[in-house]
Amino acid sequence: MQDKALGMLGIAQKAGVVVSGEFATEKAVKEGTAFLVILAEDASDNTKKKFNNTCEYYNCEIIYGWNKEVLGNAIGKRFRASLAICDENFANAIKNKIV
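Request: output the structure for the sequence above.
Response:
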């Protein structure tokens, strides 16, 4: 199932509804445009704490999955520790593929 979620991430990237990188992801959460944040399992403890606090405060769902390299490859980039999905339908589809 998680391979399908990675495929959905690639489609979402092509659709232009994925922002990646720490600053862009944080900005999307704070602006209220992010429906789902995905953090790499090997992200730093600082990054995890920061996004846990930010997502809790702004009421944005956060999940942990894969590592930086796999997340980056899924969206056609190199390494990515954080991604935000800025479309509710894609966010729900990705969550459904993970569970």
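The chain has a mean pLDDT of 94.
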